[in-house]
Design brief:
Blueprint lengths: L3 E2 L2 H16 L14 E2 L6 E8 L15 E7 L7 E9 L2 E14 L4 E7 L2 H27 L6 H12 L7
Parallel strand pairs: 2-4
Antiparallel strand pairs: 1-3, 3-5, 4-7, 5-6, 6-7
């Protein structure tokens, strides 16, 4: 099974976008307005591998449609809807792995936006926490850049992000 890294898009577009992010630290949407899925935060490695692709796998992962969320990420290649993949996100050198089914693909010309439905309650809960950690780490990094490394209080910055933006993270 081939493991693919999908954050190469961040490197291609980082120039002007990085400066725009520093003007307004919290102005990064957490959820996609159309789907309600959590958008994976750029700058944090996300790797995936295809487990299988077949209509015969419908509902076969102990899916619980009431207690789940979706995750959006960018890929360089097209992933067929219905494909089950294993995605790994690394935050602070700790990899977290989630299993889900591709339910949406948007072609943006130079990349694809993939909508991954996390059918298992455990994966949905962990993904929600991991993505919040990604956003908090990015917030701390951007705040450190803007305010200076000696002024920053990591715990205070994390609490600030939580009070301002955590309500925007979809729940189960």
């Amino acid at each position: 099974m081939l493991l693919r890294k999908v954050n190469s898009i961040t490197r291609k577009r980082s120039g002007g976008q990085r400066l725009a992010n520093h003007r307004d630290i919290g102005n990064v949407p957490i959820t996609d307005a159309q789907t309600g899925f959590i958008q994976h935060r750029h700058g944090f490695p996300l790797q995936y591998k295809c487990l299988y692709s077949d209509s015969a796998t419908k509902g076969g992962q102990g899916q619980d449609s009431q207690n789940s969320i979706g995750l959006l990420f960018q890929a360089d290649e097209y992933l067929k809807p219905g494909t089950t993949i294993e995605a790994t996100i690394t935050v602070q050198d700790k990899p977290e792995t989630f299993c889900g089914k591709v339910v949406m693909v948007r072609d943006h010309g130079n990349y694809y936006e993939i909508g991954l439905w996390l059918g298992r309650h455990e994966d949905a809960c962990r993904a929600r926490i991991v993505e919040q950690s990604c956003y908090i780490e990015a917030y701390i990094k951007e705040k450190k850049y803007r305010d200076g490394p000696f002024v920053l209080n990591r715990d205070g910055a994390a609490e600030e992000w939580i009070s301002k933006y955590a309500a925007g993270v979809p729940g189960q």
